[in-house]
Design a protein that fits this description.
The chain is 40% helix and 16% strand. It has 344 residues and is α/β, with parallel strands linked by helices. It has two domains: 3-126 and 255-305, D-Maltodextrin-Binding Protein, domain 2 (3-Layer(aba) Sandwich); 128-253 and 320-340, D-Maltodextrin-Binding Protein, domain 2 (3-Layer(aba) Sandwich). Strands 1, 2, 3, 4, 5, 6, 7, 8, 9 and 10 form a ten-stranded mixed beta sheet that branches. Strand 1, helix 2 and strand 2 (51-56) form a beta-alpha-beta unit.
């Protein structure tokens, strides 16, 4: 066989092998915590026969690193499915045309507000933004009822939150700007800085430092707060501003996970199968009843939530326009970082 023919035959076989490998695997960029996502992705791999290759974010760079990679790889996608753990970055990627529409049959029970109008993403399994209080540092009668209580001078230097450039903390900040308007939100964060708010790398660190008694009050997510409760630490979880009967109560912010397929992804068929699985009632129930403590959005899911989480089912939800919050996210980020500059 001539050498040139042999070379092209080997090249063809290599290309064929690469094509088959793409169909045999699903690549998922996952911002949900690895400790909670791994079992779900392994179960999908077992049932589907597909190899699942997850890529996770770090806690300190939550959801932002994967966002940057998806934008950079838009012309030559490496990822099939984006499992995001907050919705603002999802909407920003949707606006940039990163996602491919898919009307999953598993998404049909979900209310319309949890689905993109163009079917590019579906929201599922929410977390709430909550206050975690150290019982040894805060008497029951002094516990904060809402986030405005964090401005009380008695808590100077005793309130901790994650850096607001990343993850659900960034989304929470953007939602406050959208809900309150820029002047009031800017004033809130300026006064928070004036009360010597402490900033740490992520929501896990927020919850852990409150659990250890390093700080009195933390603004964090339900899953991280529940980890401290499960560990037996002297803490109480509070759904802030959640009393529907209270005057001017703005409600607790609930931030969902989202599932989306990347446009022109290597394995669209495998991606559809994974999205169907992630949006299934089985997975939402598992996320709710495991240590992940996610709150189901599918009305057909009736999970057994722990006692500290049951208030989520009756809490007033903050009515926020996630699309509006995402559209001005970058502008509000610049304002927020200038406002909090110098906070430690």
């Amino acid at each position: 066989m001539p050498r040139c023919l042999s070379f092209f035959l080997l090249l063809s076989l290599f290309a064929l092998g690469c094509g088959n490998s793409a169909k045999d695997r699903v690549v998922v960029y996952c911002a949900h915590d690895q400790e909670f996502a791994d079992d779900i992705l392994k179960e999908f791999a077992r049932r589907s026969g597909l190899k699942v290759e997850p890529r996770y974010d770090t806690e300190a760079n939550k959801s932002v690193g994967l966002y940057v990679d998806l934008v950079r790889e838009a012309d030559r996608p490496r990822c099939d499915v984006h499992w995001n753990n907050e919705i603002a970055a999802t909407i920003r990627l949707q606006k940039q045309g990163i996602y491919q529409p898919y009307d999953s049959p598993s998404a049909r029970p979900y209310p319309a507000r949890f689905k993109a109008a163009d079917h590019t993403w579906t929201a599922f399994a929410a977390r709430a933004r909550v206050l975690l209080v150290n019982n040894d540092k805060v008497k029951e009668q002094d516990r904060p009822k809402g986030i405005m209580d964090l401005l009380d001078p008695r808590w100077r230097g005793q309130v901790v939150m994650a850096k607001p450039q990343f993850g659900t903390t960034a989304t929470h900040a953007a939602c406050l700007f959208e809900f309150w308007g820029e002047p009031r939100a800017k004033d809130f964060f300026a006064r928070l800085r004036g009360n010597d708010v402490r900033l740490v790398s992520g929501n896990k660190d927020v919850a852990a430092t409150v659990g250890k008694g390093q700080y009195a009050i933390g603004l964090t997510d339900t899953d991280d707060a529940m980890a401290e409760i499960d560990a037996g630490n002297p803490v109480t979880l509070i759904f802030p501003d959640s009393d529907a009967k209270a005057a001017n109560s703005m409600g607790t912010l609930f931030i969902p996970n989202t599932a989306a397929i990347i446009k022109n992804c290597p394995n669209p068929e495998g991606a559809r199968k994974l999205v169907d699985f992630l949006l299934s009632a089985e997975v939402e129930a598992k996320l709710a009843e495991s240590a992940s403590r996610q709150i189901p959005l599918n009305p057909e899911v009736h999970a057994d939530l722990p006692k500290a989480m049951r208030a989520a089912l009756t809490a007033k939800a903050m009515e926020v326009d996630f699309v509006a919050a995402a559209e001005k996210w970058e502008d509000w980020q610049r304002i927020l970082l200038r406002t909090l500059q110098g906070a430690q």
